[in-house]
Design goal:
The complex is a heterodimer of chains A (about 575) and B (about 190).
Chain A (H helix, E strand, L loop, with lengths): L1 H10 L26 H5 L4 H29 L9 H36 L8 H24 L12 H5 L4 H28 L12 H33 L12 H35 L6 H14 L15 H29 L8 H24 L1 H7 L3 H31 L5 H28 L13 H31 L41 H13 L4
Helix pairs in contact in A: 3-4, 3-5, 3-16, 4-7, 4-8, 4-9, 4-14, 5-7, 7-8, 8-9, 8-10, 9-11, 9-12, 9-14, 10-11, 11-12, 12-14, 12-15, 14-15, 15-16
Chain B lengths: L1 H24 L1 H8 L4 H27 L2 H31 L2 E2 L3 E2 L8 H37 L9 H25 L7
Antiparallel strand pairs in B: 1-2
Helix pairs in contact in B: 1-2, 1-5, 2-5, 3-4, 3-6, 4-5, 5-6
Classes of the chains: A mainly alpha (about 575), B mainly alpha (about 190).
Bound molecules: protoporphyrin IX containing FE and copper (II) ion (CU).
Chain lengths: ~575, ~190
């Protein structure tokens, strides 16, 4: 710690060097202005433009999901009912569906992955540009169907659609929502296919597997999960929908079916899906940590292979969501043990990141603040995951606010934070302009404080026994709920700020040049913003990933000190 | 392509799981319901598909040798066999509807009422699984038609024939799925002696 912090303030790269002095000029032809007009965007095959399309649509959905979150938090400010139960059920269902299927799953792969994966491996584009565009349209069509279900009356089953409620009893728009999710599933599958094939076939000369940036490794592992898992949820949704329409009872005990079968199928996808959400985030963090501590990520191959390990083991633990659903005690024990095992590769990553920090020459720009926040919050999210995975303990905390807190620490505290860190880090690459550091840091701080204030009290609430998914609660829980709602307000402000200053920066931000952070990686070797086909000439890779030299940086600093220059 | 096929396997995988569950929980009802499937028609279709796989393999081979005429002919044959398969399937479906064995809308189980629920679920899975398979066949026939067009145009040479190969791979995959479906759905009950 000591070493790290003494070096930190010193050899840090000054924020976006040259930017302030007006040294750089905007490149004349970039992917942004190569073609004009709305049509050229809607029919584009350029992975970078598709990433921007995704960025805009995903941000809209995130905001909508946020509106429903606010509804929930306002309702829970007081013990009594402000919304009626029906309305409340619809609010948390809408919130969950939007955030999981329309934001978290596509966010990092479809925005940052789409933009960066081809550039990072030195390719002109993804293997199938048209399929990539198709995936965006599938996403939009699926999203629109799902949203239309919410507009005409909503769904009240929770994002988990448990049977037989969802098949037999619910009067809400389950079919339409299911159809939307089904279609969005194909968007995931096509993205995954494209990434896998691109990574295999389109690497630049010299870009061997062991030189791939860790972000690419994590996208690759994520894509595998998308390919293996998504079809299962798709077919499950088909069965669910067909059951509602035809009235046969595969999941209905009255007709001889079994509702737990649904839970198995659902979690066979949805547990791996939590890795679709976290793996890309881990990839982003590896990039940020390396860039802002100017060191090669410690244990590169461990970090790379732990992504694959997570992808594989993630498929073996779905049963930990069924501890109290009537699976056999033996199954429970086995799933419990396996869930502990799946935490190992995640821990490996955390240790490697912290080791990378050690003796690194750290600087604290906004993206790095996000990365450090990620490490802390993910540690809490992961460790409480182990609480949940402990069979006996989970019987006590299942379906309480403890679970809510656990998965928000991993889904918001980790994935959303990494996403924002990534957006800030690569913003100059995407737009050619820098954002205002001060506002960036301030919003990162607000998000961090607001987040903890919102969700930490929920651990306690859950431990004390407050169940999830009810719109009223006993008065003794109110204090902690007030804290939580207050935190949510801070969080909301924190999330809104980047919208303003990032939009502002599009016009007024300083022009940054190709490599404002002095970072390594092919994406920093081309112009900002890049030309349509990414590179003027196919790059040839001769170095390992992250060929930083912290010691040289430090020596240069010491030399400068001695000459009295600092 | 292999990555795509893996996805496909998982697709059918979910259904096979549901099937396993059904078979385990409602063994007798499944056996009774399976008795209503025409194993002879199913068998004929199996044969048709196997032959189509053969003609497909020949087409791929011909394309690799650069024999345009043979490639096109074998592909046309494959397409015809695929169409025959779908025709037989359609005939079977319409029969089920007539017999009141169509889940949800037209289902009248007149045998042992204890089996009604399980039998309906079985037939439901039958329709979903064979329906999904049929959909894949339709896509396959479309692909073959497209490849025929390209082959006629002279797109393929001994050096460049990946599209033919990939279409072939897809076709074989769809066949293999049927090879699993046929015994699991049709051949549960020993045919009447
Ligand atoms: C460190 C490894 C992890 C372990 C051992 C773990 C364990 C668990 C367990 C046992 C549950 C079920 C608790 C219950 O329902 O009673 C659970 C719930 C959940 N976890 Fe995790 N978890 C881990 C990481 C993650 C990650 C990385 C994410 C997301 C990015 C995540 C998201 C969720 C969600 C969304 C739920 C609740 C689902 C629901 O019922 O709505 N978990 N976790
Ligand atoms: Cu899980």
């Amino acid at each position: 710690m000591e070493t790290a912090s003494t070096i930190s303030t010193t050899t840090a790269p000054t924020t976006m060097p040259g930017a302030a002095n007006g040294v750089f000029e905007m490149p004349k032809v970039t992917y942004l202005n190569a073609q004009e007009g709305i049509k050229s965007w809607l029919l584009t095959g350029d992975h970078k433009r598709i990433a921007i399309l995704y960025l805009i649509s995903i941000s809209v959905f995130f905001a909508l999901g946020g509106v429903f979150a606010s509804l929930i938090r306002i309702e829970l400010l007081t013990p009594g009912p402000e919304l009626d139960a029906e309305m409340y059920n619809r609010a948390f269902t809408a919130h969950g569906i939007i955030m999981v299927f329309m934001f978290l799953i596509p966010a990092i792969p479809a925005v940052l992955g789409n933009f960066l994966l081809p550039i990072m491996i030195g390719a002109r584009d993804l293997a199938f540009p048209k399929v990539n565009l198709l995936s965006w349209y599938l996403y939009i069509i699926g999203g629109a169907l799902t949203m239309s279900a919410m507009v005409i009356g909503g769904v009240d089953t929770g994002w988990t659609f448990y049977t037989p409620y969802s098949t037999t009893y619910s009067q809400s728009y389950v079919f339409l929502t299911g159809l939307g999710i089904f279609i969005m599933g194909f968007s995931s599958i096509t993205t995954g296919l494209n990434f896998v094939i691109t990574t295999h076939k389109m690497r630049a000369p010299g870009m061997t597997w062991s030189r791939l940036p860790l972000f690419v490794w994590s996208q690759y592992a994520t894509s595998l999960v998308m390919l293996l898992g998504t079809p299962v949820i798709a077919i499950t949704v088909v069965l669910l929908a067909a059951e509602r329409v035809f009235g046969v009872g595969i999941f209905n005990p009255n007709l001889g079916g079994d509702p737990v079968l649904f839970q198995h199928l659902f979690w066979f996808y949805s547990h791996p899906a939590v890795y679709i959400m976290i793996l890309p985030a881990m990839g982003v963090i590896s990039e940020l940590i390396a860039a802002f501590s100017r060191r090669r990520v410690f244990g590169y191959s461990f970090v790379a292979f732990s992504s694959l390990a997570i992808a594989i083991f993630g498929f073996l633990v779905w049963g930990h969501h069924l501890f109290v659903s009537g699976q056999s005690a033996y199954a429970g024990i086995i799933f419990s043990i396996l869930s502990f095992i799946v935490a190992i590769p995640s821990a490996v990553k955390v240790f490697n990141w912290t080791t990378t920090l050690y003796k690194g020459s750290i600087s604290y720009e906004t993206p790095m603040l996000y990365a450090l926040a990620f490490i802390g919050l993910f540690a809490i999210g992961g460790l409480t995951g182990l609480f949940c995975a402990a069979l006996g303990l989970d019987v006590h905390i299942t379906d309480t606010y403890f679970i809510i807190a656990h998965f928000h620490y991993v889904m918001v505290g980790s994935t959303v934070i990494a996403y924002l860190g990534g957006i800030h880090y690569w913003w100059p690459k995407m737009t050619g302009r820098g954002y205002p550091e001060f506002w960036g840091k301030l919003s990162a701080l607000l998000i961090y404080v607001g987040f903890n204030l919102t969700f930490f009290p929920q651990f306690i609430l859950g431990y004390l026994g407050m169940p999830r998914r009810y719109h009223v609660y006993p008065p003794e829980y109110q204090v902690l709920n007030i804290l939580s709602t207050a935190g949510a307000s801070v969080l909301a402000v924190g999330f809104m700020m980047p919208v303003f200053y990032l939009l502002w920066s599009l016009k007024y931000g300083p022009i940054t040049g190709p490599n404002p952070w002095g970072a390594k990686g092919l994406e920093w070797e081309t112009a900002s913003p890049p030309p349509t086909f990414n590179f003027d000439a196919t790059p040839i890779v001769t170095e390992e990933a992250y060929a930083y030299d912290a010691e040289a940086d430090e020596a240069a600093y010491q030399a400068a000190l001695q000459q009295g220059k600092r | 392509m292999w990555a795509f096929l893996v996805t496909e396997v998982m697709f059918f995988g979910g259904l096979f799981l549901a099937y396993t569950f059904l078979r385990w929980k409602h063994h007798d009802a499944v056996v009774a319901a399976s008795g209503h499937l025409d194993w002879i028609l199913g068998g004929v279709n199996t044969g048709v598909l196997l032959v189509s796989s053969l003609t497909m393999a020949m087409a791929v081979h011909a394309a690799q040798e650069g024999k345009r005429k043979a490639t096109v002919n074998f592909l046309i044959l494959t397409m015809i066999l695929g169409a025959v398969f779908l025709g037989v399937k359609a005939f079977e479906y319409s029969h089920k509807w007539h017999d009141g064995l169509f889940p949800g809308f037209n289902f009248h189980w007149i045998e042992n009422p204890a089996y009604a629920g399980g039998a309906e679920m079985f037939l439901f899975l039958y329709f979903v699984m064979t329906g999904l398979h049929g959909l894949h066949m339709v896509v396959g026939i479309g692909l073959v038609a497209w490849i025929i067009k390209r082959a006629n145009r002279g797109d393929f040479t001994p050096e460049y024939n990946i599209p033919v190969e990939i279409t072939g791979l897809y076709w074989h995959f769809v066949d293999i799925v049927w090879i699993f479906l046929y015994p699991l759905l049709y051949l549960i009950q020993p045919p009447h002696h």
